[in-house]
Amino acid sequence: MERGLKPMDAEQLRECGHKMVDFIADYYKTIETIPVLSQVEPGYLHKLLPDSAPTQPESFQSVLDDVKAKILPGVTHWQSPNYFAYYPSNSSIAGFLGEMLSAGVNIVGFSWITSPAATELEMIVLDWLGKMLKLPEDFLSSGQGGGVIQGTACEAVLVVLLAARDKVLGRVGKKSLEKLVVYASDQTHSSLQKACQIAGIHPQNFRVLKADSSTNYALSPDLLSETISHDVDMGWIPFFLCATVGTTSSTAIDPLLPLGKIAKKNGIWFHVDAAYAGSACICPEYRHYLDGVEEADSFNMNAHKWLLTNFDCSALWVKDRNALIQSLSTNPEYLKNKASQANMVVDYKDWQIPLGRRFRSLKLWMVLRLYGLENLQCYIRNHINLAKYFEGLVAGDSRFEVVSPRIFSLVCFRLLPPDDNEDVGNKLNHDLLDAVNSTGRAFISHTVLSGKYILRFAIGAPLTEERHVAAAWKILQDEASALIGVP
C-alpha cells in the first residue's frame, strides 16, 4: 500500500481524524437546516455511485465530498431538533468520544482475558446505572446477578427468553417445548414475537392479551391471571411474562407489582422492558413507575434511547447470571484460560448471542462521568416539560385531541374526524402525517390504538428546544387547515 492511507499510521490518523471531527461538528452545526426526513426515492444511491469498488485509493477529501453530496441526502437525521418520530436515539459529545475511543482500541472483548478492563468496567458501570435506577441489589454484580450491555432491547429479550426456556425445560424435560407459553399485552414490542420465533416457541403459544383505553393500554393482572389458569388447566406450561414500562405506541405502563406476584406464584420468568422510559426513572419523581421491579427476574433499558449514549447500548440486568450462562455458554478448547477455568471472572460471551463484543461500556462510563446524574436528570426533565408544552398546544386547538395520557415525553394525538366518522378520521390523520413529513421540516410517526390511526410526537433529540416544538405545531396546524379548511 504505497499510495493513500496505511492500515494504521498515527500521523495519518491525526490528520484525517481532525478532518472527520470538523466534518461531524459542521454537520451538527447545520443539522437544523437539513430536511429531517430523507426526501430521496428508493434506489437513488445506485444512480450516484459506481458499480464496483475503485482499484486505486481515492483521497479522503473526495470521500468526504461524496458523503456530503450523496450520502447525507439519503439520511434521516435522528439527531435533528425537528425529529419527533418513534423514540429518540441520543448522541452526545461524551457518547461520541467514548465511541471514538472504543473504535480506536478496537478490542473484541468476549472474555475477561481478552481485555480485563472491558469486562470489569462493564460490571462497574452497570452497577452505577443500576444504583441510579434504584434497582434491587439482586441485580448488581456483588450478588448472584449482574448487568450486561446488549446491542438492543431485541437482543436482551431474546437472551432472557432463552434462559427462561432452558430453565423450565430442565425441570419438565426437553420434549415439553411445544407446551411452553409466553404472555404479554398487545402493546408489547414486536421483538418478543421475534424472540419466540427464534427460541422455537410455537406461534399459537404466544398469548397476546388485549389492552385497551380502560387501563390506559396497560396489561390487566386479572386478564393475565385468568389466562394462565386456563392454560394450566389445559395442560400448557406458562414460563415467560414480559411487562413494559413505556410501550412503543403510547408509553403505557404495565403494573409491575401485581404482574410480578402472579408470575412468581406460577413459576414464570418475569421480564421488564423499560427500553424507552427506563431513562426517566433516574429522576426520583418517575422512579415509582418501576415499583414492583423487585419481583422481576430481568430488567432492560436502552441508554442509547434517551440517556445521551450513542447507539448501541442496551443495558440488561438479571437476578441469576447462571441462568444466562447455562443457556448460552460454550467452552471450546481455544478459548480456555486460567481465569475462566477457575471461575474467577465474568466472561460476557456467555451472556449474549454472539461471541465477539465491542467495548461499549467506555461510552456509557464517559457519559455518566462527563455529565453526572444531576445534569442527566435535568436533560430528561427538559424533554418532558417540552412534551407538556406540546400537549397544551394540542389541547388548545379544538380540531385536535390528546388520545392517551401523556406520562413522559411522548404525546399521542389526532385530528378529529368530521361527524365522528372513524374511517374518514383514519385517512385524515394518515394524510396529515404524510403532509407534515413531506415538508422536511419535521418528522413524526404513527400508531394505531383501539382501531384509531394516531399521531405520535416524541421529544428527545439532544438539540430540540421550545422553538422547534412550536414550529412543528405550526406545521401541523397549517397542514391540517389545508386538509380540512381553516377553523
Textual characterization of the structure:
By secondary structure, this protein is of the alpha/beta class. The chain contains 14 helices and 11 strands. It has a 7-stranded mixed sheet, sandwiched between helices. Helix 3 runs antiparallel to helix 12, helix 4 packs parallel to helix 12 and helix 5 crosses helix 6. The longest helix has 35 residues. The chain is globular, with a radius of gyration of 24 Å. One of its GO terms (cellular component) is cytoplasm. Belongs to the group II decarboxylase family. InterPro entries: Aromatic_deC (IPR010977), PyrdxlP-dep_de-COase (IPR002129), PyrdxlP-dep_Trfase (IPR015424), PyrdxlP-dep_Trfase_major (IPR015421), PyrdxlP-dep_Trfase_small (IPR015422), Pyridoxal-P_BS (IPR021115). Its cofactor is pyridoxal 5'-phosphate. Keywords: Decarboxylase, Lyase, Pyridoxal phosphate.
Q: Short description, anyone?
A:
This protein is an alpha/beta fold and 487 residues long.
Question: What's the helix and strand layout?
Answer:
Elements lengths: L9 H21 L29 H12 L21 H13 L10 H17 L13 E5 L2 H20 L7 E6 L5 H9 L6 E4 L11 H13 L3 E8 L11 H10 L3 E5 L24 E5 H4 L7 E5 L2 H8 L9 H4 L19 H35 L4 E3 L7 E6 L6 H17 L6 E5 L2 E7 L7 H19 L3
Parallel strand pairs: 2-3, 2-4, 4-5, 5-6
Antiparallel strand pairs: 1-7, 6-7, 8-9, 9-11, 10-11
The value of Rg in angstroms is: 24 Å
Give the neighbour order of strands across the main sheet.
Answer: 1-7-6-5-4-2-3
| Beta-strand residue percentage | 5-15%
Estimate the helix proportion, in percent: 40-55%
Number of DSSP helical runs: 14
What oligomeric state do the depicted chains represent?
A: single chain
Biggest sheet character: 7 strands, mixed
Number of strands: 11
Cofactor: pyridoxal 5'-phosphate
Family: Belongs to the group II decarboxylase family.
Pfam family, one: Pyridoxal_deC
InterPro entries: Aromatic_deC, PyrdxlP-dep_de-COase, PyrdxlP-dep_Trfase, PyrdxlP-dep_Trfase_major, PyrdxlP-dep_Trfase_small, Pyridoxal-P_BS
